């Protein structure tokens, strides 16, 4: 008796076995194509199954599909005489092969949903990381400023230093604080040592 859930290797082995059984039994093409669709999705899901948790209902569905649902569905069909299974209506006017196709379609749709849930769990990490970056460095709607350089804001010079504005006039913060009228001869003391020459 197995003490725990099947390993990934055991699940892959179960998928290989059911595919081999279907091919050896020469199931119709409509059956084989749907079976291979289901086994392909299960194979894609298995490496990410831990994201859902082996004890989750979705994780159980994946394991049961490989080890129970597919083997039972294919096995029930292969035990019947082929002509009878493919032509004799047995339920709702459908033959055994038509019912098997419906069952495989249902399993395929279910496994698609599980695979989507697994991928969304992986994608959630991208969303969480994006929220972290926005909180740390700024909103993406503001251009994604990362704060790696000085802000493009002109910083005022420290007191006592001269600077030129766009008109070429000199800062007189080191002088008496009053500007001479245009054309007048300055009577103020000598210009600040750092001021540009007139």
Query: Which spans have pLDDT < 50 for at least 5 consecutive residues?
Result: 163-177
Q: Give the averaged pLDDT, no decimals.
A: 78
Broad shape: elongated
Total number of helices = 6
Strand percent estimate: under 5%
Number of strands: 2
Largest sheet: 2 strands, antiparallel
Distance between the termini: 100 Å
Physical arrangement of strands within the biggest beta sheet: 1-2
Helix content: 40-55%
CA radius of gyration is 38 Å
Structural class: mainly alpha
Helix/strand order, N-terminal first? HHHHHEEH
How would you sum up this structure in a few lines?
The protein has 198 residues and is mainly alpha-helical. The protein is built from six helices and two strands, in the order αααααββα.
Question: What does this entry look like structurally?
Answer:
The chain is mostly helical. The chain has 6 helices and 2 strands; from the N terminus they run H-H-H-H-H-E-E-H. It has helices at residues 8-24, 29-45, 49-52, 57-78, 82-87, 96-137, and strands spanning 89-91, 94-95. Helix 1 (8-24) runs antiparallel to helix 2 (29-45), helix 2 packs antiparallel against helix 4 and helix 4 packs antiparallel against helix 6 (96-137). The relative contact order is 0.09. Residues 163-177 have low confidence and may be disordered.
